[in-house]
Amino acid sequence: MNDLIHRPILPLGQRPKLIELAQVGKVFNGQVTALRDMALTVNAGDFISLLGPSGCGKSTALRLIAGLSTPTQGRILWEGGQGAGDLGVVFQEPTLMPWATVAQNVYLPFRLRGQSFPSVKGEIDEALALVGLSAFAEAYPRELSGGMKMRVSIARALVTNPRLILMDEPFAALDEITRHKLNTDLLALREKIGCTVIFVTHSVFESVFLSDRIVVMAARPGRVIEEVLVTAPYPRDEVFRTSADYAAHCQVASQALHRAMGDAT
């Protein structure tokens, strides 16, 4: 059984390198430069938010890391090489199969590998327990709320115990109360399994609540402008949202975002 093991999260500055983007660029149709010279080091245990205006290449960078697109220039390097189960991806839409049960939806990564459902049922049950959906294993997507559908998508991303989870604005379409709840639950999940996360968002407030590193990007061409460290300790909860520390970090991130928008050419 491929148990969802806990990976310890070391303090910032002590984490081993996991993946590196080395001067990565992406040009579409030979003329639209989505990314230019993007340099980013991701360390094991990081929670990184890619923050920036529309068109700055956040989602393009995520797709390149996921292997859904190929860089026009530069390289993406995995420490120790990349294995089949190293990545989990959560998109903005849950992208669930409506004809399949919750458990069958979470089973999908294993089915694509040719593994039988009985052989991985333990992992599926554990992933559903981690996202609070054990009681809904036999439900269908039409029976779930928007927040529950996203939990299924998260369970599917983590069921193979990946080293890195990529999340492309997964909560953007949800109401604020549900979004706050899932932000809190995501951090609790990270504490349980010690995963590394790269999270795309337009929201300064969301990036500060979730991240220990905020990578601020500018558009035209898409590139990294600066990085903001969020030094507030985990775990974080609703008390943190109303704290002076949270407000101060939001101000710093907001100012960095404004500088990035000013640097767009």
Compact summary:
With 265 residues, the chain is α/β, with parallel strands linked by helices.
Write a structural description:
With 265 residues, this protein is an alpha/beta fold. It has 2 domains: 17-86 and 162-263, P-loop containing nucleotide triphosphate hydrolases (Rossmann fold, 3-Layer(aba) Sandwich), CATH 3.40.50.300; 101-161, no CATH class. It is 36% helix and 24% strand. The chain has 8 helices and 9 strands. The chain has helices at 58-66, 102-112, 117-130, 146-158, 176-193, 204-210, 238-241, 244-263; strands at 17-28, 32-43, 47-51, 73-78, 87-90, 164-168, 196-201, 213-218, 223-229. The strands form 2 sheets. The protein has a 6-stranded mixed sheet with strand order 5-6-7-3-8-9, with helices on both faces. It has a 3-stranded antiparallel sheet with strand order 2-1-4, with helices on one face. It is globular.
Domain count: the total is 2
| H-E string | EEEHEEHHHEHEHEEHH
Query: Which word captures the global form?
Result: globular
**Separation of termini?**
52 Å
- Major β-sheet annotation: 6 strands, mixed
CATH architecture of the largest domain: 3-Layer(aba) Sandwich
Could you name the CATH homologous superfamily of the largest domain?
P-loop containing nucleotide triphosphate hydrolases
At the third CATH level, what is the topology name of the largest domain?
Rossmann fold
Backbone CA Rg: 18 Å
The structural class is alpha/beta
Low-confidence stretches: none
Kindly state the number of beta strands.
Answer: 9
